[in-house]
Amino acid sequence: MASSLTKDSVTPGTPGSEKTFFGHPRGLATLFMTEMWERFSYYGMRALLPLYLVAPGGLGLSAGTATAIYSVYLSLVYLLTMPGGWFGDRVWGPRKTVAVAGGIIMLGHLTLALPSSGTFYAGLGLVAIGSGLLKANISTMVGQLYQGPDDPRRDGGFTVFYMGINLGAFAAPLIIGTIGENVNWHLGFALAALGMGLGVAQFLLGSRHLDAQSSVVPKPLSDREKATTLRKAALWAGIAVVAYAVVGFTGNYTLNWVLVPLTLLGVIVPVMVIARIKRDKDLDRAEQSKMSAYIWFFVAAAIFWMIYDQGGSTLSIFADSSAENSVFGWDFPVSWYQSVNPVLIMALAPVFAWVWLALNRRGKEPSTIVKFASGLMLVGVSFFLFLAPLSIAEGGHKAAALWLVAIYFTQTVGELLLSPVGLSVTTKMAPAKYASQMMGVWFLAVTAGDATTGLLSIAGVDLNKTGIVAMEATLAVVAGVAVWMYRNKVKSLMGDVR
């Protein structure tokens, strides 16, 4: 993607000052490209994952088990953003954490490329760990490029950053998905490793443009805290090893011994983390009020992602078995559906950024809470649309590909109303004590949503049934209406944040 670099008139010598990137600090280009390649590797693998899990030439699992594994994997990726943010705050600083994370992700994809079901799950674990370390910290570095939460370019900067995510996500299914489905699954996973390698190289070369604060450890661990942390980590790791050894040696081990604890963690941990921050007596009255408002955004986002992320599992598996995956008689790989959302994002994100800026100048920009409510209602509408192709398939016919495109289009508009604004409002409302960690809290909303999907799948709920889809759609629309009705209360809790 060609960068729009122009001369800037600010003081020379400041990182990112000589040029701008779409009118934003030059460091945004570095983070844009790093995230683009990381998302190329991540979304390429993710497009293949549910298809590989159900394919006779893959792991040959049932649709329910594949959905559970996919949902638990996504839940784990975002769950690990919390310790990832903690590492950025307390151990390495955001910049070093992102560099190390990229290496771990690349190793994970290389492990997935090995033709062995035993190493496959280890590869998923490595990608999840690396992604958790990277996500919270790279978003924090985007926020550090701007002059405080009141910088008028801030929301637009996150939208541009979001375009980098979607540029990588668009190309990945077309390249990695095609190779994986049509040539060799594991070669597709190897291409994901190559993408992450390019991302790491680009980050190391362009890191000089980042804000100096990105190399600072905001609150370094003391020697005593390091010893305590290591001791606790060793204790919990020991308990897990002993527990799973007992289960394995007694012959009772099944995949659910891993899936169920992880899905429960995905639901319980977000609640515990929010409660812990809310009870922190170090927060002043204004910070406490903002955290109360943030709970509304968190719950809205969790419901949104519960439905939205089924675009890669429930919808993908439906397309594999029940959709006419062709355009004008030309068949295309199922994984290509995963490119619909990012190409729409790239087309619509600049429009949304321009509209918000234009409305802001006139004093008419919708509040964050109104944007959230609208996004939530739209994701509900997308699943009401899903009822049509489900009914067609139940009648013994193949559903047209355009039905799925319409669903992804509706979800994309909802995403643009909720996701980039959510990233920005998180950095605005975060208490100073929880800088990078609050980005981890934002991603825990995704964890909670995906964990709920995982629990439903493990419980044997068929997510491709009209009754379940209708219930999820109704939940999202009702929740969106509720958020809108209480918008004035939430605005008052947000204080000076808009």
Automatic annotation (TrEMBL):
Q: Name one GO biological process term.
A: tripeptide transmembrane transport
Where in or outside the cell is it found?
A: Cell membrane; Membrane
List the transmembrane segments.
43-62, 68-86, 98-114, 120-138, 159-179, 185-205, 257-277, 289-308, 336-357, 369-388, 400-418, 439-461, 467-486
The protein's topology relative to the membrane is: Multi-pass membrane protein
Q: Which Gene3D superfamilies match?
A: MFS general substrate transporter like domains
Origin superkingdom:
Bacteria
Q: Name one GO cellular component term.
A: plasma membrane
Under the heading Pfam families, the entry gives: PTR2
* InterPro entries in UniProt: Dipep/tripep_permease, MFS_trans_sf, MFS_Transporters, POT_fam, PTR2_symporter_CS
Keywords, alphabetical: Cell membrane, Membrane, Transmembrane, Transmembrane helix, Transport
The molecular function GO annotations come to:
dipeptide transmembrane transporter activity; peptide:proton symporter activity; tripeptide transmembrane transporter activity
Annotated family: Belongs to the major facilitator superfamily. Proton-dependent oligopeptide transporter (POT/PTR) (TC 2.A.17) family.
Q: What is the protein name given in its UniProt record?
A: Amino acid transporter
